[in-house]
């Protein structure tokens, strides 16, 4: 399978940093179309810098970023080609207020398609479809400023969906939301990936969100230190500790139960997996007690 996004020897140094320590150093990654990938790491690990490079908000100090066969770091790339890449690889930021540009919800969602020069009936179709996808079709005539943080983030996502992207990068997009808002946005990510086939890359410091992805990439000190399934990543306690991260809540619970003599099998990284492992352990104990 050809990768949709391929990163080769990617490095980045912030020009205003006096020590010139790279925020990213020699990163090599491939992300296939249709994957649901979580990128994790402590503050300053390079994960958000990586996200902004994929959308060319930052230009790399060296290395290549290839999107669907197109080298977007090529100095000869045209403005039209770069605009098309940004349409195909959308980005949802931490603060939705930074993405909302209009005073009416449907006008905000229409902003991107209008800039594509699409006919009005196509714009209408895309706006209606995007708002329905994020469950905000009844808010089309509302003012974004009067919406909750979670609702604003849904509108920001709708604006990206209306551009018909093949990949959406969520850069700490749940960080400013309450638990209910975070849950809703993560469910939205899953829907976009599972039902619509959109490649989802989520940059997050919430371990309970990362476990729901198909693949987890761990950054530390500007480098990729691990890449695997959630079970593989969170079963490696030393890796998580060295990266300055915490275990997901369920994995931490399982760890404490094991310390107290309850023999749990598996990674126990989600509530369902943890509950199943506890039931198996209790069943085995009952058999032994008999």
Description:
The protein has helices at residues 47-54, 79-88, 105-115, 120-133, 149-161, 179-194, 207-210, 230-234, 237-242, 249-259, 271-289, and strands at residues 3-12, 24-32, 36-40, 62-67, 70-71, 89-92, 167-171, 199-203, 215-220, 223-228. The chain is an alpha/beta fold and 290 residues long. The strands form two sheets. It has a six-stranded mixed β-sheet, with helices on both faces. It has a four-stranded antiparallel β-sheet with strand order 2-1-4-5, covered by helices on one side. Strand 7, helix 6 and strand 8 form a beta-alpha-beta unit. Helix 4 crosses helix 5 (149-161). The protein is globular. The model has no long low-confidence stretch (mean pLDDT 91).
Topology:
Elements: E1 3-12, E2 24-32, E3 36-40, H1 47-54, E4 62-67, E5 70-71, H2 79-88, E6 89-92, H3 105-115, H4 120-133, H5 149-161, E7 167-171, H6 179-194, E8 199-203, H7 207-210, E9 215-220, E10 223-228, H8 230-234, H9 237-242, H10 249-259, H11 271-289
Parallel strand pairs: 3-8, 3-9, 6-7, 7-8
Antiparallel strand pairs: 1-2, 1-4, 4-5, 9-10
Question: How would you briefly describe this protein structure?
Answer:
The chain has 290 residues and is of the alpha/beta class.
- Return residue spans where pLDDT drops below 50 for at least 5 consecutive residues: none
The fraction of residues assigned to DSSP E strands is 15-25%
Structural class: alpha/beta
N-to-C order of helices and strands: EEEHEEHEHHHEHEHEEHHHH
Q: Tally of extended strands?
A: 10
């Amino acid at each position: 399978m050809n990768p949709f996004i391929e990163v080769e020897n990617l490095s980045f140094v912030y020009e205003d940093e006096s020590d010139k320590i790279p925020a990213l150093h020699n990163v090599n990654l491939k992300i296939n179309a249709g994957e649901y990938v979580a990128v994790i790491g402590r503050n300053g690990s390079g994960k958000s810098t990586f996200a902004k490079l994929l959308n060319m908000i930052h230009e790399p100090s060296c290395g290549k970023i290839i999107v669907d066969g197109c080298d977007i770091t090529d100095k000869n790339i045209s403005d039209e080609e770069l605009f098309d890449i940004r349409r195909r690889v959308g980005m949802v930021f931490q603060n939705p207020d930074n993405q909302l540009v209009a005073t009416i919800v449907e006008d905000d969602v229409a902003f991107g398609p209008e800039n594509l020069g699409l006919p009005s009936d196509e714009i209408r179709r895309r706006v209606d479809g995007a708002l329905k996808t994020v469950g905000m079709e009844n808010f089309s005539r509302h003012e974004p400023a009067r919406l909750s943080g979670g609702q604003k983030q849904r509108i920001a996502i709708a604006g990206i969906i209306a551009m018909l992207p093949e990949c959406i990068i969520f850069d700490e997009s749940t960080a400013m939301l309450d638990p209910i808002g975070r849950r809703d946005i993560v469910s939205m990510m899953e829907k976009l990936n599972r039902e619509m086939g959109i490649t989802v890359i989520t940059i997050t410091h919430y371990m309970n969100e990362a476990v729901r992805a198909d693949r987890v990439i761990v950054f530390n000190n500007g480098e990729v230190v691990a890449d695997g399934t959630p079970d593989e990543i969170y079963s490696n306690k030393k890796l998580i500790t060295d990266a300055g991260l915490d275990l997901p809540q369920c994995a931490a619970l399982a760890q404490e139960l094991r310390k107290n003599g309850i023999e749990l099998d598996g990674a126990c990284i989600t509530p369902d997996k943890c509950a199943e492992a506890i039931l198996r352990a209790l069943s085995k104990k009952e058999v032994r007690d008999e």
